[in-house]
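Example 3.2
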Amino acid sequence: MTKQPTDDMMSSSNLPDIAVVVGASGGVGAALVARLAGDRRFAAVLALSRCSANAPSGPRIVQGAIDITDPASIEAAAEQARRLGSVRLVIVASGVLHADGIAPEKSWSAIDADTMARVFAVNSIGPALVARFFLPLLPRQGRAVFAALSARVGSIDDNRLGGWYSYRASKAALNMLLKTLAIELARRAPEAICIGLHPGTVDTDLSQPFSGKLAPDRLFSPAQSADHMLKVIEGVGADDSGRVLAWDGQVIPA
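Structure, written as tokens:
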């Protein structure tokens, strides 16, 4: 009697290894896609964004649509990844700091329930939903990495200035989610790693209103930030799972 293939069998080594970038149309996400497309360890890079027309294109780049606030959209993107190959790397590069109707709060008087909910939906709940559908795709054996972009301001111990209530709290929540996901992931796939990454201050639309006073050596281009983070990913091991690491590999306190 022929045994029907399972999800784990479908993710075995006989399938080509692929990388997935969520938020591929953003500055950092696009730079990550470009770098990973040149990495011959991956047969393809799945570039996922809300508008795939704005995502990077080129050899070995496969475009796909995703809305991280919509579970059905994430599930469809995960199915696209499953059919493409064995998922060895997932990077969630989406996030919001300011947008239409959203700005970092300078005082508690600016706290607004609807705004805070929107920030949490993108920065905390969204990556958790991505993990829900993509972590089961990581092979049970061999090294695999799930990473989400976090921020140093999400560190409770490192908070010296206050303010930025929604953004700080959403990233602190993300860090706890990643720690909790890492514990469960270790039971399923002991060699798999789940981490947060602080990209540094990057010259993108997200940081543009707040980066004018920085020294040039403290502001990274998207390509520089991507290179730093991929180097960190390359160097992490199972003992690092659950941690949040800065662009230079330093552990950011909880």
